[in-house]
Amino acid sequence: MTFQLDTDLTGHHCPDPLRHAFVAKTSAHAGRGSNGPLSPEETHRVWRGQQPVTTPETRLAYFHIPFCKTHCSYCGFFQNTSKEQEIARFVDSLEQEIIQTGQMAWVQSQPLSAVYFGGGTPTDLTPEQIIRLGDAIKKHLPLADGVEMTFESRFTGLDDTKIQACIEAGFNRFSLGLQTFDTFIRRKMSRIDPQEVLLERLEHLAKQQGVTTVVDMIFGLPWQTEEHWLKDLELINQTGIHGADLYQLIVMGQTRMAQSIAKGSMPAPGDTPFKAGLYQMGVETMQANGWDRLSLSHWGRPDAEGKVRERNIYNHHTKAGCEMIPFGCGAGGKVNGHSVMLHRALEPYHAMVAAGQKPIMGMMAADPQLALSRVLGAGFDLGRLDLAQLAATTMNSDMGGDIVSHCRPLFEAWQNNGLAVLDDNSLTLTLAGQFWNVNMNQALNNYLERYPLNGQQPGQAA
Ligand SMILES: C[S@@+](CC[C@H](N)C(=O)[O-])C[C@H]1O[C@@H](n2cnc3c(N)ncnc32)[C@H](O)[C@@H]1O
Ligand code: SF4
Q: Which of the 8 DSSP states describes residue 120?
């Protein structure tokens, strides 16, 4: 069979693949063509029909707190403005949802390796609410020894009492949405705390016993120059924190940022080649400062004994498509290969919990190639595909055949275009490939749809 390898799959052959192999990153994550939604009846049948699992598997739980005090200009995750009474009502329902979900034998059958409170703004909960929810989790859900429990936080409102409440509730990891230390750029994004507050809070957090502190940074923000970015990287290094994520800005349609740029009231952010340069600076600076690379976008800092406290369990296993039990209004999850979304609107969320039902808004049909999706998700997150592992996902499955040979023309084209290095054991992304990893993962999915293994469309295997 001859393959027509278009540049949307292979990238362009050019002298500077880091900046120009593809045109732009189109989304935050790669995705497979949808398997189609299940009907509401089927959805609840699948949820209720989950059987206890006896083979050990990595399980995660995600809690979505759908309130924010302000709507940051770049963000597409905003759902509701924080209001005391609404939050109190939500916490009542969420506690109920934890109790109800914890009654399922399937939920109890495997311990949770990571619990993540995200949003939205979990720091808009009161200390009492945080402790109450932490107690419900510890009482009703099975937690693995050494479970990673993350509290995603903003700096605003993260006072000492709230930090202590989180620790008392069982959280052992704070993930702070820092974005940039530059006070002027922060304020333009509706992030109000100035640099001095950020540095003081990070120092305070870094001193907490047994607690891991990590920050999210964004590169490519409007007004951000190379000097700003270098300064951000230098400041991260000066604090005592344990980990950092470096994210490329994606200007999402419908955000205030996209509207302001379109109107001309905000300067356009740096283009993709500029962001590629910032990525390179990030990789090189973190390495020069002695940080360990835990994934393509995440770093952990070794302590004086060379031990890296940051484990990155939740983030990596999410990318690897592990089971994820969702909780809270607007949470997404993964159940036995089905993507699940809980209600995003508060009223149906409350009504279903009150009726004793899991508040599911929608569920997709199961991914027929779950093992393959997981190996690709994990491999692209780490920048290296293990070819033996990849081959095993199809060898003994309904798909049949050798996926590595099947994809070799694409792998060789990536190598030829400076995006990867192929040897007998692995496909390893170059710096350029690391920057374009989401496009490449998506390209591999598209390739398998265009040229199905053994002539079968993915998903049609008997
Ligand atoms: C789901 S958001 C929630 C963060 C939390 N509510 C906060 O404000 O810090 C998690 C992280 O995604 C990143 N993020 C959000 N919008 C982004 C965008 N448009 N482009 C790149 N990264 C983005 C930010 O670094 C953010 O901290
Ligand atoms: S970045 Fe965080 S606080 Fe800001 S709107 Fe998005 S979810 Fe809310």
A: S
Distance of alpha carbon 146 from alpha carbon 148, whole angstroms: 6
Task: Please check whether residue 237 is in contact with residue 289, taking contact to mean a CB–CB distance below 8 angstroms.
Answer: yes
- Number of Cβ within 10 Å of residue 355's Cβ equals 8
Report how far ligand 1's centroid is from the alpha carbon of 123 (Å). 15
Q: Which ligand is nearest to the CA of 176?
A: 1
Asked, as a colleague might, if the bond just before 120 is cis with ω within 30 of 0, I would say: yes
Give the tens place of pLDDT for each residue, 153-208.
999 989 999 999 999 999 999 999 999 999 999 999 988 899 999 999 999 999 99
Evaluate: CB of 406 within 6 angstroms of ligand 2. no
State the distance from the centre of ligand 1 to the C-alpha of 70, rounded, in angstroms.
Answer: 13
Cα 254 to ligand 2 centroid, rounded to whole Å: 14
Indicate if the pLDDT at residue 2 is higher than 90: no
In tens, the pLDDT along 96-132 reads 999 999 999 999 999 999 999 999 999 999 999 999 9
**Was domain 7-26+369-455 assigned CATH 2.40.128?**
no
Q: Which ligand is nearest to the CA of 214?
A: 1
CATH of 40-317 given 3.30.1490.100, 3.20.20.70, 3.10.580.10, 3.40.50.1370:
3.20.20.70
If phi over 0 gives left and psi between -120 and 50 gives alpha, with beta otherwise, what is residue 352? alpha
